[in-house]
Sequence to fold (435 residues):
Amino acid sequence: MAFRRPAESLSIAEARRIALVAQGFGRPRGARAPGLSAVTGSVARLGVVQIDSVNAVVRSHYLPLFSRLGPYDRTHLDTAVYKRHTLFEYWGHEASFLPIELQPLLRWRMDRYRRAATADPDAKAAADWRAASLARERPEYVQGILDEVTTRGGLSAGDLAEPGSGRGPWWGWADGKIALEYLFTSGQLAIASRRNFARVYDLPERVFPAAILAAPTPEPADAQRELLRRSSVALGVATARDLADYYRIHVPTARHRIRELVEDGSLVEATVDGWHEAAYLDPGAKLARKVDDRALLSPFDSLVWERARTERLWGFRYRLEIYTPQPKRVYGYYVLPFLLGEHLVARVDVRADRAASVLRVPGAYLEPDEMPATTARALAGERRSRSVGADRVASELAAELRSLAAWLGLERIETGERGDLVQPLARALGAQGPP
Fold:
């Protein structure tokens, strides 16, 4: 008989605390630098860490672990992926690091892509599906690339004997790179390492542990249910769209699987004050009485990557402006949300000037009391960030920036002139001294 718990009702503050704890916040940072097990454990809790090449501060996939663990040795993450193979690269959210045990759960995606199911929305979500056309139009070329990797061992696109020439607007990739990406996405190749951030491709049997390769392949529906269940554990409380987005499962497909998870008790239906869509609660989610944390967040951090959810939980409207022309930017090129306690209280434009050994902060902005009316109604009665006080926010932010600068090996922090928080921040940095 199916087990079904009654729906639970949550305030926005409760939903926020559940989300923060599920994402690994609210835990005291240790006195010693986190080791390899702490790094892999943090990724296991999150279930996926998005990879991104943006290097304005540090490559963005290193930041989520800093936000949760504090200063750690970045080589631990690389070791876990490329030497210990407790993590692996694949299309999870976007390009991602994932726990190795998830590899069998993603084979349905590899298989659909391999069969060039270009009309399948799940295949499109996995990667840029146009590479499948190369496999259909020039199968002998793609097979030749696979044969070359088989014979020569791990290769980057630049190592290929016939890399081809760049074509079209698709990042200017040559056919060889497109073929490698097709073979990777379809599961015929895996990422063995990176050289100067360029992927090195090799056969899965030369990359993955034997036990993973021998693990049975679940049926697609079973794999999707498990991925959605893991999404709920990582998010704590979420809508169907939030859950589907975590591992990029097509929303209509996800809705079917979510209903099945509710029926067997793996998810609990919930309502959250101010949310217009139904919510789903991880049965094991923990509701802390208080979350006391401090962190600068990557734009690609799983706490904030779903912008609609970020606005629902915090009234924080967040848009990355890297690709916005400079005159049209509101806050800056690479702006990090600042978490203090349970609230996103500020946003900070940050840049690592490695040549000058300076962490530059061109702008810092305290979150305003005012917010869109719909969001304000949902957050009625909540303390606004200004009630925390600009001086306290500046002091806490200064301490976090000093920690970030030290972690990056930068000797100074210099502030710019933009934003209402920048002067209090400059005073706080001066009072605290150099990193």
